[in-house]
Amino acid sequence: MPVVIPRRRIAAVVTGLAVALVPPSLALTSAAGAPAAGALPVPHAAAAPALVAAPLTVSQAVASQTGQSATVRGYVVGQPTATSTVVRSSFPNDYALAIADSAAETSTSRMLYVQIPSAFRSAWGLKSNPSLMGRQIDVTGALSAYFSHPGMTSTTAFAFSGTSTTTTSPTSTTTSPTTSPTGTTSPYDSTYYASAIGKTGTALHTELHRIISSGVTTLTYDQVWTALKDTDQDPANSNNVIEIYSGRSIAKSDNGGGVDQWNREHVWAKSHGDFGTVNGPGTDVHHLRPEDVTVNSTRGNLDFDLGGSPVAQCTGCLSDGDSFEPRNAVKGDVARMILYMAVRWDGGDGFADLEPNNLVGNGTAPYIGRLSVLKQWNLQDPPDAFEKRRNQVIFDTWQHNRNPFVDHPEWVTAIYGS
C-alpha cells in the first residue's frame, strides 16, 4: 500500500529543506534589511577571515614571467651583472640582487634577478649591505625579465621573511593631469611634451620625433667645440669639462687631437649610418661628448655591450672586438643618448634611419646595439644632476630641443619594451 504522509508533515519537510538550502545571505529581508514578515529567523554565520596569499617560491616566479605583480620569497645569493653572471662579493653597485630557493644556490637558471629602484638601494643594495647575503627576504614587484633573465622589475616592497617590517616605495601625492604612462612628471609635461603625454609604443615614438625635431637650431661641427665646453662643464671647476667614459676632469682649452687631449666623441658612432660630421646627426650635441683622444680611439665605432678587457686610461671601461662597455656611472647616459638619436633621426632630413638593434658588430649599417643591454643600463643608472643640467643647457642655449629620455626615462620601456 502507498504510504500516506499528512499534508502538514509535507509542508514542514519542504519548509525545512528550504531553510536548510537558502544561505543566510539570501534569507528573505524587507527593503530596510530586516527579516520580512513571516520569514524564519536564520542565524548569521561568522565572517570568514580574509586569506592572504603565500609568497611565491623563486622557482614559481621564474616560471611565471607574465608581468603580473607578485611577492616572492627567496634567499639573497648575489648580484647579477649579466644574463648568466652573478657575483657573490666585491659588489659593483646597489642596483640589483639575485634570490633563490636555497641560500647555497649557484646555478643562475634557478635564480630570480631583482631590480632595486633608487628609493631602496641604500637599504637593500649589496654594495652598501653585503650582510644581506644568505638572508631570506620577501620582495614585491612585476614578474618580468631583468638583464634578459627571469626577474622582477618595478619593485615596490622589500622585507625580511617572517617579519612585519616592510620597506615600501614612497607614494606620490601628485595629481597633475600631465602624468606620463608610469606616473613620472616633468616640468615640461604641460608645454613641450603636452601632446605626447598618455601615448605609448609607436604613437609615442612618432610624437616625440615630431616634438624634438621642431624648432631645432642645427650646429656646425666647429660650434660643437664651444657647446661641449658649456654642456659638459665640470661642476667643481668651471675651467674644465668632464670626459664621458673616463670621467676625467680636463681643461676646456686642452682640446684637439693630441695624446691626453680631449676631442669630440660621437656616442652614436658616425659610421653607423655614414653621416660623418656634416650638419645634422653628425653635429647633434645631444650625443656628442668630450673624451680622451686615446679612449675615443679605443671605442672607435664599437657597439655597446657587456664584457671585454680593461681599457687603458678609462677605469671601469671594458672592450673587445665588437663592443665597448662604459663605466657604471654613465651607462644610463649612453643608453638615453643612443635612443634619443633613434627617435630624432628616423630617415627624414636626407639622413639614414637610425635604429637600435640587439646585435653587435653592426659596422656601417645605420644600427647600433645591444638594445637589451641599453634598456638595462637606462634602468640601473637613472639621470643624475649632471645629465639633467646638460639637457637643460642644450635646450636653453644651443639646439633648443630636449632628450625626452632624460626627462622621462620610463619612456624607454614605453617605446621599446622591458
UniProtKB/TrEMBL annotation:
Stretch forming the signal peptide: 1-27
UniProt region (Disordered), positions on chain: 162-185
Matches recorded under InterPro entries: Endonuclease-I, His-Me_finger_sf, YhcR_N
Keywords of the record: Hydrolase, Nuclease, Signal
Chain ranges passing through the membrane: none
Domain Endonuclease YhcR N-terminal as annotated: residue spans: 56-160
UniProt cross-references to Pfam families, sorted A to Z: DUF6359, Endonuclease_1
PANTHER family membership: ENDONUCLEASE-1
The protein's name in its UniProt record: Endonuclease YhcR N-terminal domain-containing protein
Provenance organism: Terrabacter tumescens
